[in-house]
Amino acid sequence: MFERMDKGQRDRLRFTFNGAEVTGQSGDTIAAALLAKGHRVFRQTPTTGAPRGPYCMMGSCLECLVVVDGETVQACQTAAQDGLTVTSPPPVKDIP
Ligand code: FES
């Protein structure tokens, strides 16, 4: 579904997502790099556990939340950088 338009660039960034190595290109957001590598599910909803992934890619929907080096961020608004540790947010089970 998602495919890079410029296929001539080499991947130069390396970071991890839930322990798996991901490569990306200079200028990628975390969401762009993950989508380009086939990652569609970034988190699960806290109430039902439904899979969620980027939708708007412009900072409005909050479907792309991830944790980067301990801080929750919007993956579509955060630049990918070498050496980041990116994880899915932990599910919150105690929401009434
Ligand atoms: S994809 Fe909508 S806020 Fe990131």
Report on this structure.
- The model has no long low-confidence stretch (mean pLDDT 91).
- By secondary structure, this protein is mostly beta strands.
- It contains one helix and seven strands, in the order E-E-H-E-E-E-E-E.
- It has one helix at 30-36; strands at 13-17, 20-24, 43-44, 51-52, 65-68, 71-74, 85-87.
- It binds FE2/S2 (inorganic) cluster (FES).
- The site of FE2/S2 (inorganic) cluster (FES) has 12 residues, from loops.
- Residues 54-57, 59-64, 74, 76 line the site of FE2/S2 (inorganic) cluster.
| Beta-strand share of residues | 25-35%
Mean pLDDT over all positions: 91
Stretches where pLDDT falls below 50 for ≥5 residues? none
CATH topology, anyone? Ubiquitin-like (UB roll)
- Strands of the widest sheet, in order across it, are 2-1-7-5-6
Count of distinct strands: 7
Key phrases:
96 residues; mainly beta; five-stranded mixed sheet; two-stranded antiparallel sheet; 1 helix; binds FE2/S2 (inorganic) cluster
Short recap of the structure:
The chain has 96 residues and is mainly β.
